[in-house]
Write a sequence for this structure.
């Protein structure tokens, strides 16, 4: 222990304050804050570190009710705009959330930042002017913690157009608002963030955030360094047998003939067991990750579409204009496009995650499509995307993709991992005729042969004949399983990734739901090896995650039945072979 450390009790108090600080919206009282306390809290903020000791902050105390009502109206407008932008699943959750306490606190404190303070020679700001705002944020945190120690609550409101707010506060033009804080006494400090309690988001484990030397090794100090893939595989456990038994028992008691809801029955039971909670939470909100990549094997004429359609369609999906977006809106899901390997670059767009490992793969008929390092990187992209989506509160994931030519690597993987011939599992993709399909099957066969791809070495096979979006999906499926979050598979690409994931971690299949059967022959071949049955068959052959998205309400219905349908006993309905009560009475 350091000689400079505080005594144990003081140290503990610091950690307690940090842990028990909360963003408060609902539990404020209007009791006034005495001046001495307020000065102590502002003094703590003023002791914050700052770049070049520039101390760029100022504190504007706002108490005037009329002004606060005007400011609240500004926040309300932003809230309405934000709510309108949400998928319907999220909108429903957001409706119940309070996001400000502007008029229900005795005091609002605005913390501003002066980017010019300290002059042109401010030490440390020359390379990155953002340091001024960062310095001001440290003052906010000091204020927040000191307030907590004093028993005062703080609620940070960021639902503002900063210029509108600055005008309303009549700030000099050169100032920026960093924080708008509602401050007051509270009736209680909630033990956890409200966004966690309501299921909007979850706290990420510390181990996800600590990187040891390289990005891919996430190890807490003193821990054993393992790759992200190995760590993820090790975290996958089988679905919960006790919850499965409970779900099956409940299913048998529901007011319907046994088996009358067909595949939905086992789907609900499997999803409950995967999540491992009873009663099973509704699989909502839902996020669809669309992994995008290009393929060197396109040069072999395996698709009638030009390669640039991949990036164009990825842009269309990110902009909300594709079939998968319509399907997502229909079922209330969010869509995230992940550029893991597009040949061209997309401009920044909301809903686009740029995680590019390479600009397309190499032609697998001439050697490995990607290197082992690229394969690992792409898998890690998928792991991180799944982790983020789960931490954002999603309870059901959908694996989608876009990439001209990507049914060819998918067919190759399906052939390798199911033992079927390339001809058996190669389909027409996005519109080949029969001679085109036969030529494509020959390309698949050549890729497997040239690379000696074999199910005995799943990662080698994935890198040799797969694609970047396939590899990312492998990581995505594994990480979802490690987080006990079910994933709905879409077409042949996600099914091929599931086969690789199964080879790496057989229990991953407990967490997978087959969305649809589709036209590609590789889907049914893969599902048979995965031991899964498709929920619907609508002759779809689009990909993007569209078919899986359409299966989402079925998965939700399967769980809702377990949660809501009455039992024979609770509804006083006689069972099939039960002797009618009336007769029993007469006989008695
Ligand atoms: C920069 C920033 C802006 C925030 N803006 C808002 C906001 O506008 N409305 C709100 O209700 N909470 C806001 N919060 C609070 C967060 O939602 C909260 O910190 C988070 O859910 C974790 O909860 P906790 O602070 O109680 O630990 C903001 C927090 C920060 C750091």
């Amino acid at each position: 222990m350091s000689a400079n450390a505080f005594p144990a009790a003081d140290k503990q108090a610091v950690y307690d304050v940090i842990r028990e600080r909360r963003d408060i919206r609902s539990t404020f009282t209007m009791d006034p804050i005495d001046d001495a306390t307020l000065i102590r809290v502002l003094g703590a903020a003023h002791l914050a570190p700052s770049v070049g000791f520039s101390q760029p902050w100022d504190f504007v105390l706002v108490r005037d009710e009329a002004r606060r009502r005007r400011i609240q109206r500004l926040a309300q407008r932003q809230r309405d705009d934000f709510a309108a932008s949400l998928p319907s699943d999220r909108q429903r959750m957001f409706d119940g959330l309070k996001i400000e306490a502007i008029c229900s606190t005795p005091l609002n404190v605005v913390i501003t930042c002066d980017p010019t303070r300290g002059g042109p020679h401010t030490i440390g700001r020359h390379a990155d002017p953002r340091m001024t705002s960062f310095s001001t944020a440290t003052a906010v945190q000091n204020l927040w913690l000191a307030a907590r120690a004093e028993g005062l609550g703080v609620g940070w409101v960021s639902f503002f157009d900063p210029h509108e707010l600055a005008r309303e506060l009549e700030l000099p033009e050169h100032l920026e608002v960093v924080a708008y804080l509602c401050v007051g006494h509270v009736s209680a400090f909630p033990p956890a963030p409200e966004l966690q309690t309501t299921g909007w988001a979850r706290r990420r484990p510390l181990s996800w955030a600590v990187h040891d030397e390289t990005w891919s090794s996430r190890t807490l100090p003193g821990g054993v360094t393992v790759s992200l893939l190995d760590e993820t595989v090790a975290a996958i456990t089988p679905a919960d047998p006790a919850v499965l038994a409970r779900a099956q028992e409940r299913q048998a008691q529901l007011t319907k003939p046994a088996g009358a809801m067909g595949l939905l029955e086992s789907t609900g039971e499997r999803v409950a067991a995967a999540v491992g909670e009873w009663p099973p939470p509704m699989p909502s909100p839902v996020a669809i990750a669309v992994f995008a990549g290009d393929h060197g094997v396109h040069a072999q004429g395996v698709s009638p579409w030009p390669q640039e359609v991949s990036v164009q369609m990825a842009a269309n999906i990110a902009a909300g204009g594709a079939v998968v977006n319509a399907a997502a809106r229909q079922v209330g899901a969010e869509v995230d496009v992940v550029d893991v390997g597009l040949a061209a670059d997309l401009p920044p767009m909301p809903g686009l995650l740029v995680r590019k490992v390479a600009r397309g793969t190499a032609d697998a008929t001439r050697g490995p499509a990607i290197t082992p390092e690229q394969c690992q990187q792409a898998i890690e992209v998928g792991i991180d995307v799944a982790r983020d989506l789960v931490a954002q509160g999603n309870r059901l994931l959908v694996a989608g993709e876009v990439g001209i030519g990507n049914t060819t690597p998918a067919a190759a993987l399906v052939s390798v991992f199911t033992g079927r011939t390339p001809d058996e599992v190669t389909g027409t993709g996005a519109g080949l005729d029969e001679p085109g399909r036969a030529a494509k099957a020959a390309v698949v066969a050549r890729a497997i042969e040239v690379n000696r791809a074999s199910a005995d070495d799943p990662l080698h096979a994935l890198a040799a004949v797969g694609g970047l979006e396939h590899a990312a999906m492998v990581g995505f499926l594994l990480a979802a399983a490690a987080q006990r979050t079910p994933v709905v598979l879409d077409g042949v690409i996600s099914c091929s990734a599931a086969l690789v994931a199964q080879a790496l971690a057989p229990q991953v299949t407990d967490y997978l739901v087959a969305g649809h059967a589709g036209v590609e022959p590789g889907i049914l071949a893969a599902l048979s090896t995965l031991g899964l049955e498709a929920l619907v068959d609508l002759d779809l052959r689009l990909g993007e995650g569209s078919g899986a998205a359409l299966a989402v309400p079925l998965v939700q219905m399967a769980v809702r039945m377990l949660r809501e349908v009455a039992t024979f006993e609770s509804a006083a309905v006689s069972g099939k072979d039960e002797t009618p009560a009336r007769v029993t009475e007469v006989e008695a």
